[in-house]
Amino acid sequence: MTHPTVPKQLRLIIETDDFDEALRFYRDILGMPEQAAFATAGDDRVAILHAGVATIELATRVHARNIDAVEGIPPESGSPLRLALEVEDTVAAVARVVDDGVIVLAPPTRTPFRSLNARVQGPAGWQLTFFQELESLDQRRMRPGFLTDGERDRSPEP
User: Fold this and answer.
1) Which residues is 147 bridged to in the sheet?
2) Please, what sign has the CA dihedral across residues 18, 22, 25, 28?
3) Bridge partners, 85 (sequence order)
4) What is the pLDDT of residues 26-54, one digit of tens each?
5) C-beta separation of 80 from 61 below 8 A
6) Which CATH class name applies to 19-154?
7) What phi and psi values does residue 48 have, to the nearest 5 degrees?
8) How far apart are CA 151 and CA 141, in angstroms?
9) CA torsion angle for 95, 100, 106, 108 (degrees, to 10)?
10) CA distances from 27 to 16, 34, 60, 101 (A)
11) Going by DSSP bridges, is the β-strand pair 127-133/83-86 parallel, antiparallel, or unpaired?
């Protein structure tokens, strides 16, 4: 029997004052298909967009600032919540949103995490990181520094 509290879906709710712009960006520009959702009338609007597989990345402030530094984001201009979207081609994803007038905060950059990352300013104040994995998880696990938190706790100090 599966555990009754294991999540089946992660749903991130972005409250926005410009629903049409946010919907256009996420659905039409980023290509997230819309699912049917219930709302009443007038300004009671909701759109549920499929964004692929969801994970939650927990990071200490130190690690988040390290990611900001790797991506070229000035200190303290990051956000405590941001979206990170895995894409097939980071350069193409950035080009698509730039064509739509989105501000690039950090251009595509190879990271020590073995990904190609870029950060843009999305609607409703959310920052988005596009990331393209450059290695498989199995390849990455063979490299120094790539451990789970539990493995890191058990490993000897360098």
Assistant:
1) none
2) negative
3) 130
4) 999 999 999 888 888 788 899 999 999 88
5) no
6) alpha beta
7) -105, 120
8) 11
9) -10
10) 15, 7, 31, 16
11) parallel
Query: Can you tell me the distance from the alpha carbon of 51 to that of 66, in angstroms, rounded to the nearest whole number?
Result: 26
Closest CA to 49 of 98, 80, 13: 13
Q: How many CB atoms lie within 10 A of CB 106?
A: 19
Q: Tell me: the pLDDT tens digits for 56-76?
A: 888 888 888 888 899 888 876
Cβ atoms 52, 86 nearer than 8 A: yes
Phi, psi for residue 106 in degrees, rounded to 5: -150, 125
Model pTM? 0.77
Dihedral angle over CA of 143, 145, 151, 156, nearest 10: 110
Q: What residue type is assigned to position 130 of the chain?
A: F
SS3 state at 74: coil
**Domain residue spans of the chain:** 19-154
